[in-house]
Specification:
mainly alpha, two-stranded antiparallel ribbon, 4 strands
């Protein structure tokens, strides 16, 4: 069954990779964010949409559901948890890219080690994911209209999408 599903997914992977190579926003994300590949860049771009609708990068993090909610009553503060108020696919893409920060070659490796020293691996990756979300926001906002500009379709990509459907 796994092999059959892999065969069905192969044309979709090729189509998404072809799209990411042609789309300016995807290319910027892949080139500037360590750990972001063609599939995750496409997911980030699709779920994020036009970044100009967010007033700040904090709003973009809030939109992704990676922000920490805090419940406070009087002088007692409950431990925060993720709000999960946003696209699950966006959180998946950012968290997957953030896992690469554990590698020594990552530019965020020092930050990851600093946070992981205080708390655990997963929370350190979440912290890096928020950082990647902010960077993605600034990159896509800087590109403006060009980030979401339509790309000219390639016949192979269209055939792969039609074959998968």
């Amino acid at each position: 069954m796994i092999d059959a599903i892999d065969r069905e997914l192969a044309p979709l992977d090729r189509a998404l990779c072809a799209f990411a190579r042609r789309q300016r926003g995807c290319r910027a994300l892949i080139a500037n964010l360590y750990g972001v590949g063609a599939i995750s860049a496409t997911a980030i771009l699709a779920e994020r949409g036009d970044c100009r609708r967010f007033a700040s990068s904090d709003d973009a993090v809030r939109h992704s559901g990676l922000d920490v909610t805090v419940h406070q009553s009087d002088n007692k503060r409950a431990a925060g948890h993720l709000s999960h108020e946003g696209p699950e696919l966006l959180r998946w893409a950012l968290f997957g890219a953030a896992h690469q920060s554990a590698r020594r070659s990552s530019p965020d490796h020092d930050y990851y080690l600093q946070v992981a020293g205080r708390i655990d691996h997963s929370r350190a990756c979440l912290s890096v994911a928020r950082k990647l979300c902010r960077r993605a926001h600034h990159l896509l906002r800087e590109l403006g209209d060009q980030a979401l500009a339509p790309v000219e379709s390639e016949p192979q990509a269209e055939e792969a999408m039609q074959a998968a459907a």
